[in-house]
Amino acid sequence: MMSKITAKAAGTITLGDLTVNRMGFGSMRLPGPGIWGEPRDPEAPRAVLRRAVELDVNFIDTADSYGPGISERLIAEALRPYPPGLVIATKGGLLRDGPDMWRPDGRPSHLREALEGSLRRLGLDRIDLYQFHRPDPMVPFEESVGALVQMKDEGKIRHIGLSNVNQDQLGRALELTEIVSVQNRYNLMDRDSEGVLDRCESLGIAFLPWFPLGAGQIASAGRRLAKLASEHGATVGQIALAWLLARSPLMLPIPGTSSVAHLEENIAAASIRLSNTEVEVLAAA
To answer: Is 66 one of the annotated active-site residues of the chain?
Structure first.
């Protein structure tokens, strides 16, 4: 592992005409419990965000539904004026009714309202990467994606991404517009989106694995993971992140945390290099 903790160690990835380091930061955990309300210690998330940038993180993922609105506001409070090269990706398409409660809303009118709110909170004139958070079974998928295309044409969105989609939905979206990223749940223990990842690889589309550490699942992943962690002088979480980076050059992990110490641990994983054999051993575990 490199002595200097830096997201640059993971290499870079392109999102359309943007280039970012391949270890990002996910801001979902910055609001209060249940991703709801203000954080218990208002300064703690700001310190995490500032430290992330110090560690060369230049891709931050957020959403209007985190808080709701609180994660985006904290990002602006901590980082404006934004450093050159920082890409803030946000999402729209979910409503919140309380802690840990989420429901889709893919109506074009809601997506427009969500985008305008994100622009205000982040203090931006254009969102570099705006992602449709989740398809809404009550709204035709093409209508939702079409609303993002219209707002991109208006100059309010630079690039469009998708989240929580299957291969069919990705294909349908690509018939309407360029898609530069897909964000699906994926980690060492949960690879249900393997087919979507493979499709992204074939198309050169960045894949953002959410829930990249799998929380308690990783901790119970077995002796192979623990053995590799010991051999590399790393934690099991760091090996899980290193496995994602090794799994595909199109992978852009966005581990999130509300702790500076945990942030530093996650970013240090960018320096870990797993052999092809180690990658295969973990995949078979």
So the answer is: yes
